[in-house]
Amino acid sequence: MTMTRREMCLLLPGAMMPVVAASVAEASEQGDSLPSASYAFATLTAHTAASGAQVREILKGKLATGESLETHATTLPPGAMPHPPHHHVHSEMFFMREGTLELTVNGKTYPLGPGSVGFVRSNDEHGVKNVGTTAANYFVVEIGPGAAGV
Question: In this structure, is residue 85 part of a structural domain?
């Protein structure tokens, strides 16, 4: 079967429909997601938790790919734990800035000092404690179902 250029041009709009539909779906999905942004530490409002930890919420919401995400910065006093060991569906990462934390995952302990990263996968029981003599400053990133309360 042969086609003229004119007949090919008449088919072009129909061939483009899946591409246009995908672009519209992606734009709609990204419209509900967290926007690209910058968060200056000095502008983050701290609230004090019952444990004495100062917590600064940074961002909370959904990624364009659908995962829930929550990020906060914590300053934990020496000897303190932000809460008892627990587990949840989302995964969690701890990024150490200053001080010393002890991360316990399923009964095994890991020391976290400045520049260290701790990772806890979904449903593993975990907890952190400041085992140093100074405040521990760290970031927590939660990703997955239940993170960000969404």
Answer: yes
Which pLDDT tens digit goes with each residue over 74-107?
999 999 999 999 999 999 999 999 999 999 999 9
Distance CA 139, CA 119 (A): 12
Give the C-alpha separation, 30 to 34, whole Å: 8
pTM above threshold 0.85: no
What is the count of structural domains for the chain?
A: 1
Q: Where are the beta strands (DSSP E) in the chain?
A: 46-48, 54-62, 68-76, 91-98, 101-105, 108-112, 117-120, 126-130, 136-143
Q: How many C-alpha atoms does 17 have within 13 Å on its Cβ side? A: 4
Residue-wise burial string across 31-49, b where 16 or more C-beta atoms lie within 10 A, e elsewhere: eeeeeeeeeeeeeeeeeee
pLDDT band at 15 (very low <50, low <70, confident <90, very high): low
CATH number, residue 76: 2.60.120.10
- HSE at residue 81, side-chain half, CA atoms within 13 A, is 11
Question: Could you tell me how far CA 149 lies from the centroid of its own chain?
Answer: 12
